């Protein structure tokens, strides 16, 4: 993700645990050095997923995206591959997506981006997966845990440990 650091993209984000969707959110995703960020990502992190999926074009089906990509590359046959998707995505995001599905050089003409690559590209635009792992505590932006409020008195004293109080966020 280092090449995408600081970029933002609107996306529908799905949280996966053991291969199934456990929660979804939409919003702006920010790419960091080695992690995704943004309110929608933070909201999903509370569900402790093992994987996140970005859908960069949630209003379109994978087949519709394939058609859009096919039309773009046909119209821009002699433009460079790295510039093929200008208007759809930030150039660095487009490069990253293209690199993920093909070894085609960025300076190759769009006419050399064949339908199998466009199919793979449409698939990753709809379902770009990122593993979720434990991170460095010093860099944590969200944590989970705490004390159930039913365990506290109105004065924030722990019901099971007289004389101990809890307060804070």
Which properties best describe this structure?
169 residues; alpha+beta; single chain; 5-stranded antiparallel beta sheet
Nearest-integer average pLDDT: 91
| Major sheet summary line | 5 strands, antiparallel
Number of helices: 4
What Rg do the Cα atoms give? 21 Å
| Helix content range | 25-40%
In what range is the share of β-strand residues?
A: 15-25%
Q: How many E-type strands?
A: 5
Helix and strand pattern = EEEHEHHHE
Secondary-structure-derived class = alpha+beta
Instruction: Identify the overall geometry.
Output: elongated
Q: Segments where pLDDT lies below 50 for 5+ residues?
A: none
Strand order of the largest sheet: 3-2-1-4-5
Head-to-tail CA distance between termini: 31 Å
Q: What is this entry, summarized?
A:
The protein is an alpha+beta fold. It has helices at 39-45, 62-75, 91-101, 115-126, and strands spanning 8-17, 20-31, 36-37, 51-55, 128-131. The chain is 26% helix and 20% strand.
Account of the 3D structure:
There is one protein chain. The chain has 169 residues and is of the alpha+beta class. It is built from four helices and five strands. Helix 3 (91-101) packs across helix 4 (115-126). The longest helix is centred in the middle third of the chain and has 14 residues, at 62-75. It starts with 7 loop residues before the first strand and ends in a 38-residue tail after the last strand.
Strand and helix map with partners:
Blueprint: E1 8-17, E2 20-31, E3 36-37, H1 39-45, E4 51-55, H2 62-75, H3 91-101, H4 115-126, E5 128-131
Antiparallel strand pairs: 1-2, 1-4, 2-3, 4-5
